Amino acid sequence: MPVVGVIGGGQLARMMIPPAVALGIELRVLAEAPDSSARLAATTVGDYRDAPTVLAFARGCDAITFDHEHVPQEVLRALVDAGAAVRPGPDALLYAQDKLAMRARLAELGVPMPDWARVSSVEELESFLADHGGRAVVKTPRGGYDGKGVRVVEDAHGADDWLESGPVLVEELVSFRRELAQLVARRPSGEVRPWPVVETVQQGGVCAEVFAPAPQTTEAIERAAAEIATTVANGLGVTGVLAVELFETTGGRVLVNELAMRPHNSGHFSIEGSVTSQFEQHLRAVLDWPLGDPELRAPVTVMINVFGALPDHQIVAALAHQPSVKVHAYGKGPRAGRKAGHVTALSDDLDDAVYRARAAAAHFEFSAPD
Amino acid sequence: MPVVGVIGGGQLARMMIPPAVALGIELRVLAEAPDSSARLAATTVGDYRDAPTVLAFARGCDAITFDHEHVPQEVLRALVDAGAAVRPGPDALLYAQDKLAMRARLAELGVPMPDWARVSSVEELESFLADHGGRAVVKTPRGGYDGKGVRVVEDAHGADDWLESGPVLVEELVSFRRELAQLVARRPSGEVRPWPVVETVQQGGVCAEVFAPAPQTTEAIERAAAEIATTVANGLGVTGVLAVELFETTGGRVLVNELAMRPHNSGHFSIEGSVTSQFEQHLRAVLDWPLGDPELRAPVTVMINVFGALPDHQIVAALAHQPSVKVHAYGKGPRAGRKAGHVTALSDDLDDAVYRARAAAAHFEFSAPD
Fold first, then answer.
1. Chain B environment of A275 (Cβ under 8 Å)
2. Number of A–B residue contacts, CB under 8 Å
3. Alpha helices in A253-365 (DSSP H)
């Protein structure tokens, strides 16, 4: 029986449990705390930044993968040196950890992106702003997620606090029609399989709703999105799931916004919505097993995040009123604004799926992020 | 977070893990052995016939349910006396444990069945044979499954060994066109939801293939099957999933063959094939939560059992050649003839689903029971 070790005990690790159970894969999780979302599969509770802890955890695993991208490079390299199959490997993960490195590498690959620059001083930021209509997005190269570490500035002093710690990434403020996400999976032997491109709706920098496939999408956009993600997966040597967040510009172009090298919120629709979910595909990919069919199971799938908490009585109410909507609860304690679960509706009709998913999500009190 | 305790650590308990993870239900399993199929969720290893073991296991569970029907009545009654929500309860489970009691109760309910009799002597068996063309099926009232405890006799002395231990059930040998299975779920507050009736193909008394929905089925048969199962579920006070195995006679009638009060092999198709799988529905039902939509997700789903073992290299071969077939491995050690997993194919077309499911199953060496 193959053994996959997952570093991190969040909901992404949790949602790997069902396909591992189905495929007869033993899943082991290195969790941060005993009450982590993926506690059912936790075999170790410890610090993912501590090399001896991680090395001990990895022993006996056929592949090591991740619930998040925060494992330090030196720990990743110690794993590789110890002979572990780290997937994705440190060379690829670097580009998910460092946005400046990511932009520089994507530029080499010729992938379409917003204008960007590495900025180390107020003068450099001022110059970028002058060239881009006086407004820009500044991002810390490391540690940002869900809208954190991202700021729109209109003043050359708008990032002074971040510049104290080193260079930042500055990007043009893209005039976009909507946001898309393109997921692909790649296995070490090279096979790459894309899912259909999806539309993501963000609220306060956090993914709120996903429509799969992205409604009213031209073939040119579909093709561009799949090509970009395939180029990135191959170019960066990603193994497992790669999520590429994209802007569809008002001018009809597709530009890379962010990358994630793991199952991603924009792919949760695939649990019910695809023949092979992102969690199953990720396990298959990191084991270098043949990838499954990512085809959609219904004309439309709508996924809506639930924030804060999913108390039992609200789950019961949602199930009672929407018997065909699937409810996912991540087993976390309540905390305002935190992703606590999601709901998914499949349909032949977009309006119907949106209606039912929103009706189910409405049973949860904290269903919008703070 | 609701807690469901499952007595028995086989593949049925194992397949409850994914929907428990999705719905945020804590699943606890009382397993027979440390290497049981459902070991990931095992919180106790012990003997399900030992009341103190079972009582200790049940503490803190919001509902107790089962992977099998072998828990003795006195243990079930001790659980009820201790205040546990036992679902299904001992009064219902009796009819899944004792085939003579089942036949007598179904007769009271007016459910169509083969001719049957309780037989305590060679003379009584001789008389039944004389009335039914000289052949009949004899069954031990208790402990039979997967073809065990069932025998076709043509001689009044053909059941002498069993008659030594007490009365047996004798049934007419039904001339059937095919076998069907009708699954329903019932929650304590009374709601009953049937899945579409399916066709089951048995080999050597063991379920080998399932076609969902049963192909070329008249509305009269569909309605009769659903009505029978609903009548049985209500009449016996079943909570959770009830599987009713049926004969469709050459004369176009539907007769009850066997009952199971738990998720059942004939319902494995529903994991991918239904909006709500039998495992999710069972958990919802035993918690008295609202039942989900059992509607089919595709025009045809075909499930094929795999026996003996699913070695990794055979799983890889099956996945490589059939990227849209779902493979389920039960995490059991190899043993010839034992159910070790199953494969499922969905399609718009029966022939296509059968072809792909059989092609995937053919990668497993021991794919027929002994």
1. 324, 326, 346
2. 107
3. 270-273, 278-286, 312-321, 350-361
Pairwise CA distance, residues B77 & B59, whole Å? 15
Segment holding B306, helix H or strand E: strand B300-307
B3-86 CATH: 3.40.50.20
Is the ipTM beyond the 0.90 threshold? yes
pLDDT digits (tens, 9 = 90+) for B109-127: 999 999 999 999 999 999 9
For chain B, the structural domain boundaries read 3-86, 115-172, 176-361
- CA distances in angstroms from A221 to A12, A126, A174, A235, B368, listed in the order given: 28, 34, 17, 21, 48
Q: Is B274 on the interface with A (CB under 8 A)?
A: no
Q: Please give the CATH architecture assigned to the domain spanning B176-361.
A: 2-Layer Sandwich (3.30)
Shortest distance between the Cα of A294 and any Cα of chain B, in A, equals 8
Q: What is the mean pLDDT of chain A?
A: 96
- CATH no., domain A115-172: 3.30.1490.20
State whether A22 and B327 contact (CB < 8 Å): yes
User: Any CB–CB contact under 8 A between A324 and chain B?
Assistant: yes
**How confident is the model over A272-318, as pLDDT tens digits?**
999 999 999 999 999 999 999 999 999 999 999 999 999 999 999 99
Express as a percent the part of chain A with pLDDT over 90: 94
Q: Of A241, A142, A137, which is closest to residue A182 (Cα–Cα)?
A: A241
**Shortest CB distance from B319 goes to which of A2, A271, A289?**
A289
Among the partner residues B17, B291, B327, nearest to A23 by beta-carbon distance: B327
| Interface touch A290/B316, C-beta < 8 Å | yes
Query: How large is the average pLDDT for residues A187-204?
Result: 95
Contact list in B for residue A329 (CB cut-off 8 A) is: 22-24
Find residue B210's DSSP bridge partners: B200, B303
Measured over all CA atoms, what is the biggest interatomic distance in chain A, rounded to whole angstroms? 59
Residues of B in contact with A331 (CB under 8 A): 1, 21, 24, 26
Q: How confident is the model at residue A366 (pLDDT cuts 50, 70, 90)?
A: low
Q: Does A292 touch chain B (CB under 8 A)?
A: yes
At B104, list the tokens: 């007598």
Strand order across the beta sheet in which B116-119 lies: B116-119, B168-172, B136-139, B150-153
pLDDT at B370: 45
Could you give the 3-state DSSP secondary structure of residue B173?
Answer: coil
CB contact under 8 A, B24 and A284: no
